[in-house]
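Lecture notes, structural biology module. Today: joint structure prediction for complexes of two components.
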Amino acid sequence: MKRRNFIKNSMLFAGILTTLPSVLFAKKSYAAWPKTSFDIKDLTDSVKSVYGHNNLEESSKVKLKAPSIAENGAIVPINVSTSLENVDSIMIFVENNPQPLSSGYQLTQLAEPSIGTRLKMGKTSNVMAAVKSGDKVYTSTQEVKVTIGGCGG
Amino acid sequence: MSTIKMRSKESNGVVTVKALIKHPMETGQRKNKKTGDMIPAHYIQEVHSKANGKDVITIHWGPAVSKNPYLTFKYKGNKGDDVEISWVDNQGNKDTKIGKVK
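The predicted structure, tokenised, for the full assembly:
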């Protein structure tokens, strides 16, 4: 009889343990930090891991503002805006960085598709801004020449 | 002292939020020059912003974002909105700040 109770109780406890995390994490409505995408070292693979495909379309509606020559690779100001409608996300890729995916911005209906930040760049590289609107991904690319690297610090 | 400095301003129904966060943003690829040991990665992974309690933007940052990161974004809003910015780094540290739109 004792044993039966023990089994019953332990099963109940196991049940609580398995349901508890899902309750805790259900509160977080937005996506978790995409570790795999941030770890990838190749631009093509990186793009594929973010969007599930490599069908990018160069578009003049994506405005990428970046310096053509960055004196300090540790602080490269990047601004991305677009006149496209229904923007889901904006991603910034730096091709020659150890990991090309630098940052991602998930927008809600409330947000305007215009963001700015500062990035580290190890060496001269193409910087690509990718805007997801509907099912399509539109991009704009610009080369940024770096005279002092940002990773040696 | 909050790690977040924030300023937000409304113009024609669009609020521009500018924020500076104090954070080392270590990539995990640098060496301590004296000891030769690798400096462990320490960077902000997620920044989240709300306006009057509604989600505006969720940002995922990698180690390539500069030290003491700067951020700007825009949303459809009004003067007097409560804008909240919060961040979490890869070591579980976090901070939140709420400010009023001017």
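Point to remember: Chain B has one domain: 4-100.
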